[in-house]
């Protein structure tokens, strides 16, 4: 017999997986993403019986993790993914690595062979026994907490520790390895204990011991900021994760600051606000560097400022005092203010004059003019600027936008303003191609809001069959595929940095829209031949209740607004004459990856 949620009572005996499903419901989880299999089927059975959590079956475990990741980013709740043992478990690793690097709270529930078969030739054994590899050693580096549940009676202790670890700064994945017999075991539902778990106790004690030092540092920073006339704030994804947009805006208002954003955080500050300076880093705007050079202080909020967010800014950062408000220290020299992001922002702002200050004049996020292309674009293609302008014209202001890696992604980050009331997400933690297909579905199912996925054909060929998942679950996702029949960013790197394009990164032409339309007749997949057709197709997709799919053709030789490419073309166009020697203020070529 298995227990339904109504039958789960304190002190009663139930299957471990039924208790797990009930606890996830109690934690506010509404969806469980994954791919089934023999060693995880009992959990899926419990989720099905619970009727309070929707089980979503993906096409691939990587995409299942990104669905949980997108769910978490769109809702600020815990994302949950489940997978079976063996290859299914291993397919989770790249998605968990992204969540780890981007500090996204995800709980991974990973099936394992029965404990009695470990070390005895079990199929998909990863216990570390008798020469098998150890799953704990695989998942520990990409998780904040990892445990194998060998004793069912310990599960009631391990589950809250895992959830707490995923949701405690720095956030990230937690992994529980669940042998099949442990999942099936009968356990006594524990009497609810209000005592914090050991992990939470440790975090609380640590916070208390450093509170005095943090307050002193905040006072010092606030005093310095009161005397600054020009401040540049660079805000990151942590602002969205902490729901601190209001606190960020208030800080900028009191400082009279310019506000730039990192590539993965375009939605944390109104892109149409007069204070908005643009995107920082390799996909960003030259105005940010200009503001930084003029600033008395640079304040990082919710970002450690990794290379993608600071490319081209290193010289200016070295000459400017930096303050970082984030749970972790920055990647650049500066004063670090840790602790809870919202609380720290409020504490700093309270010590500043309450009257709003106007920000100094600045150019704003003007698009970078495109360089001379490597070759002239073929006829019948859309430029990235034309395509992104069409997306901007149709994009609902409450939509979510998920932007994939590559030339199309760089163009969207640079050119597309974030919707006022939705997320604008770029997976820069690991930069994995194909991330958006699962993540967009997870966000759309979690919120019910129209979600745009902007991706190239390379990303589509990796994980684009999650379109099938969107169709199966009627997810309100609009997939926009920029098809240049190439791994375009790789091809341009080869042309610029290696003296020629290798043919293996250029593909034969593929009509992606026709293929998807044939596979999914109800989807209404279409090809857009120009910007007007693209805009109309997007507007039609907004009126749909389920998914839509639009493909357009781009040219693989068009250089996107990506600083390593732009700085290279600029440097090669400069005269090599000693009379025009580069000044110390010119940054020269920028290299990423």
Number of strands: 20
The mean pLDDT is: 91
- Give the N-terminus to C-terminus distance in angstroms: 55 Å
Low-confidence stretches: 194-209, 575-585
Taking the sheet with the most strands, its summary is: 6 strands, parallel
**Which structural class do you get from the secondary structure elements?**
alpha/beta
Q: Gyration radius, to the nearest Å?
A: 25 Å
Q: How many H/I helical runs?
A: 24
Structure write-up:
By secondary structure, the chain is α/β, with parallel strands linked by helices. It has 24 helices and 20 strands. The strands form four sheets. Strands 3-2-4-5-7-6 form a six-stranded parallel sheet, sandwiched between helices. Strand 6 (145-148), helix 7 and strand 7 (173-179) form a beta-alpha-beta unit. Helix 1 crosses helix 2 (41-50), helix 16 (384-394) packs across helix 17 (407-415) and helix 16 (384-394) packs parallel to helix 23. The N and C termini lie far apart (55 Å).
Please supply descriptive tags for the structure shown above.
24 helices; alpha/beta; globular; 6-stranded parallel beta sheet
Secondary structure elements and their pairing?
Blueprint lengths: L12 E3 H11 L4 E4 L6 H10 L3 E4 L3 H15 L3 E5 L3 H4 L2 H10 L3 E7 L22 H5 L5 E4 L6 H13 L5 E7 H5 L1 E3 L9 H29 L4 E5 L1 H5 L3 H11 L2 E4 L14 E4 L6 H9 L2 E5 L5 H4 L3 H5 L3 E4 L9 E3 L3 H10 L33 H11 L5 E4 L3 H9 L8 E3 L8 H13 L3 E6 H7 L3 H6 L4 E7 L4 H10 L14 H8 L6 E3 L2 H12 L5 E6 L9 H11 L20
